[in-house]
Amino acid sequence: MLTRRQALAASAAIPAAAALPQVAAADAHAGGPPTAGLSRSFSLGDLGVSVLLAGTATREGDQQETFGMNVDADTFAQVSQDAFIPTDKSQFFFQPTVVRTGDQVVLFDTGLNADGITAALESAGVAPGDVTTVVITHMHGDHVGGLMRDGEPTFGDVRYVTGEAEMAAWREQGLPDNVAALEDRFELIADGAEVAPGLTAVAMFGHTPGMMGYRMSSGDAQALLTADMTNHYVWSLAHPDWEVRFDMDKAAAAETRRRVLGMVADERMPMVGYHMPFPAVGYVERAADDTFRWVPESYQLML
User: Which pTM value belongs to this model?
Assistant: First the structure.
């Protein structure tokens, strides 16, 4: 029987021309959820996309202290039971994305820390020195944690990009240390800006004042990178009006979820969600009672 490591080595030998989506691991893990150093790669037209598992965390305790804060306990419990998930524990996934477009390598967000993001990049065949642009969707710690290592930029002298509304808001309340260290190097953009060929900013304000998602397009192929537009596939995505503790403007966040999820469902495009279950790629469909349903990608991107 092949070991996990042998199987991974064998999959790496598949010719690139096969263009098959692959899950790769830098290190095997024994039992429990994966931790870091995994990636999920696929082609989107001429774009090479890799979703990176840069870390995970299990949160214990009453999950309604974080999700569904505006619904009654019985409703929260029933929805959770129907989805086969407990109400006293949840699993978080932290998943930046790297996109190869032309001669550029664009990294969206940097995870919790430098070790996690570099291990995940390595699993996708990308070294920190290969990255040409780092885009920060928003400035929560689990997205900017990997910007610096031991007081030095993890990715060196590269281009840094973030939303102008996001930067303005955090300047007022105090920039995270990792962002402050690089503040004068950031290029600030608005909704609709193209940060690299095929990568266009989409305003998704609410979770933070200026969070941006990104439409990834090549020819007729497209997908939407949604950052933290939704934080959980049931308690946030399926029920977009449920309040989430992490959302800084809860009404705006709910409005954004309804708008973006409706667009993803109606356009039937793949979505990459930072906190969706690994490997974070899937589809959204409209469901009963004005809700949505997360449909994990299976083999669609192989075709």
Answer: 0.90
